[in-house]
Design brief:
Blueprint: E1 8-10, H1 30-33, H2 40-54, H3 58-70, H4 77-83, E2 99-101, E3 107-109, E4 114-115, H5 117-127, H6 131-134, E5 135-137, E6 142-144, E7 149-152, E8 154-156, E9 167-168, E10 171-172, H7 180-184, E11 187-190, E12 193-196, H8 208-236, E13 245-246, E14 255-259
Parallel strand pairs: 1-14, 7-14
Antiparallel strand pairs: 2-3, 4-8, 5-8, 6-7, 6-13, 9-10, 11-12
Helix pairs in contact: 3-8, 4-8
Bound molecules: iron/sulfur cluster.
């Protein structure tokens, strides 16, 4: 079994020494990958837009941010209210339910949750844990040029069963510090508005205020996501190639260079 401790992680998050940094191109819909396992229709939508989004340029991303900034988050409220979401603490989104094959070599767990450096810092501050105890490089989404392996961002650390390390006795033990993506689930912004993922909390009652909170968080998440893509594209855009996509081999013991879009 792959041992995380044998991997030396070099990251921009805490040390901020640009001489140490390696950046990796971030394919546009990396966060969409985590949505794939939940509903087949999302998978179809993802696959259909993957080739285009893979090569999205920074100008398009900036336009996307601009239009999000001008969009009032209340526009998302009706779709959220219609879903009737109310968290039932079922833990579906925290547990590994199954894996999905992204490419011939990449098998991604359903709950490999991509998180932002800000999320990690907040959890580290709130819990007093170390980075390594909170997050792990996203080794299910790596790029390699044959010599170097870059992990594309971070995911929440997972336990031996594959569940989020913070999911215990049926509850999130870091609820007030949980990542933005956990606050948004089961909603994501899709091309035509709000995409809704599989969730046992749907079909209940949602208040306007609660839907408004989620809508605000969704907009914030989307802007943050696009900004992180720009950060990576600008630095290592030339390395992006579908042929370079890989997941980290289980017996790998070298360095993993994490590209998270922060300078
Ligand atoms: S941080 Fe909390 S809400 Fe998010 S996956 Fe882990 S246990 Fe679930």
């Amino acid at each position: 079994m792959f041992k995380w401790l044998s991997v030396q992680v070099v990251s921009s998050i805490f040390w901020g020494n640009t001489n140490l940094l390696y950046y990796i191109i971030y394919f546009y819909n990396i966060y969409s990958i985590i949505q794939i396992p939940f509903v087949a229709q999302s998978l179809k939508a993802f696959i259909s837009r993957f080739p285009q989004s893979l090569f999205m340029d920074t100008a398009s991303l900036r336009r996307g941010i601009e239009s999000l900034i001008h969009m009032h988050s209340s526009a998302l409220i009706p779709a959220i209210m219609d879903s009737g979401f109310s968290c039932q603490r079922c833990g579906w989104c925290c547990r590994e339910n199954f894996k999905i094959r992204i490419t011939k070599d990449i098998l991604r767990p359903s709950n490999a949750i991509s998180i932002f450096p800000d999320d990690i810092r907040r959890i580290v501050r709130g819990t007093g844990k170390k980075l390594d105890e909170v997050a792990q490089p996203d080794t299910y989404s790596c790029l390699t040029d044959g010599d170097t392996i870059w992990a594309i961002g971070w995911i929440l650390r997972r336990n031996e069963e594959g569940n989020c390390i913070f999911y215990r006795s049926g509850a999130c033990t870091i609820y007030e510090w949980r990542p933005v993506i956990c606050r948004c689930y089961p909603f994501f912004m899709g091309g035509k508005g709000v995409d809704i993922m599989r969730c046992g909390g749907l079909g209940n009652k949602t208040s306007w205020e609660k839907a408004g909170e989620i809508a605000w968080m969704l907009k914030r998440y989307e802007i943050k996501k696009l900004r992180s893509y720009i950060g990576i594209l600008e630095q290592v855009g030339d390395k992006l190639s579908p042929a370079n996509l890989c997941s980290l081999p289980e017996n790998y013991s070298g360095n993993v260079l994490v590209c998270d879009g922060e300078v």
